[in-house]
Design brief:
346 residues; 22% helix
Length: 346
């Protein structure tokens, strides 16, 4: 049994020594900040400013992470969703367990999420944008709590607004890749996108546990709203060092996912990231995992490969990949969870 301050720690939470956070971590210098206000100004037309596209290109290429401000999501919507999230997690545990997810349906409340087979120090609530029984056998059905009374309305309104932002960012990335702006949109007609509410309680073992272990997101994009507490760490691509993404009020963090990495044929890389815990303060965040339809077969886009730059990945089915990742998040497995690197050509 691992020890911390003479108190026994559940070994399920203990990270391997090489993945444990350092006592001190520096704020990230240079995490790109992209101002989207030109897209919403009265003078905005069909032409995207070249400087904006250049900023997106550099951010995706050099970091795989960037923050956006003046993004078009109303402040009132953000604050209502944040308040609803805090009310839900403040409920007695027995009330939250009424909407607990299970092996048949992976959406709802859960207190035992795993990342790379190590338990995360957090509690979550997941819901999907489009409910259905998926062709993969994955049940995409929401469980809504009876209280708080405004919970569902507040977070569904948030999801609709952030979905619009996700499509805006997707089109900017498409243009940055020298593709038509809506080249990727059709992949999301029957999307498997889901939204997660994260609560990270104070943790007395910051040297052993993580709120979320090191990982790369497997979908297309993640659009994250976080509070002021901080804790999101990204591995800087230039030197492999972990750095803290400093929260900017009312901003979103955009994270390039594995699907964009494959579609771009490694021009844009998904960044490895994690969440460090806080010993004194609760932390809350709301990531929007923007995922395509389950019948989409993911491979490098034909416009971005040629004889001099052949495709670096074998084709894989997103629905099957997504189901396997959901299975590994639900419980500890005896094998490594599925990664896009498993489809990399030699």
């Amino acid at each position: 049994m691992a020890q911390a301050h003479c108190v026994q720690v559940d070994p399920a939470f203990v990270q391997a020594p090489e993945h444990r956070p350092k006592a001190a971590i520096s704020d990230a210098d240079g995490v790109p900040l992209v101002d989207l206000s030109p897209l919403f100004s009265d003078s905005a037309g069909d032409t995207i400013p070249a400087t904006l596209l250049s900023q997106v290109e550099v951010a995706c290429r050099d970091w795989g992470f960037f923050q956006v401000i003046n993004h078009g999501v109303p402040l009132e919507v953000l604050k209502k969703a944040e308040a609803a999230e805090k009310k839900f997690f403040a409920l007695p545990e027995e009330e939250k367990l009424k909407v607990r997810r299970d092996g048949a349906n992976r959406f709802g409340y859960y207190e035992s999420e795993h990342t790379k087979n190590v338990r995360d120090w957090k509690r979550i609530f997941d819901f999907v944008l489009q409910e259905r029984l998926d062709v993969t056998g994955l049940v995409l059905k929401n469980r809504w709590p009876e209280v708080p009374l405004d919970f569902r309305e507040s977070i569904e309104e948030y999801a609709k607004c952030v979905e619009k932002l996700a499509f805006i960012v997707l089109e900017l990335i498409s243009l940055a890749l020298n593709l038509p702006p809506k080249r990727l949109n059709a992949f999301f007609e029957e999307q498997t996108t889901f939204v997660r509410l994260n609560h990270y309680p104070p943790c007395p073992y910051p040297d052993l546990a993580l709120g979320v272990g090191h990982h790369k997101d497997s979908g297309a994009l993640t659009v994250l709203y976080q509070d002021s507490v901080g804790g999101l760490d990204v591995k800087r691509q230039s030197d492999g060092e972990w750095v803290r993404v400093k929260p900017i009020p009312n901003s979103f963090v955009i994270n390039v996912g594995g699907i964009i990495q494959v579609w771009s044929n490694d021009k844009y890389l998904s960044a490895e990231h994690r969440v460090s815990v806080n010993t004194e303060r609760d932390r809350f965040s709301i990531p929007f995992f923007f995922n395509p339809a389950s019948n989409i077969d993911v491979r490098p886009l034909p416009e971005l490969v040629d004889d001099r730059n052949p495709g670096k990945y074998k084709e894989y089915n997103w629905g099957e990949f997504f189901k396997r990742r959901m299975d590994s998040d639900f419980k500890k497995l005896e094998v490594e969870n599925i990664q896009i690197d498993h489809f990399k050509r030699a």
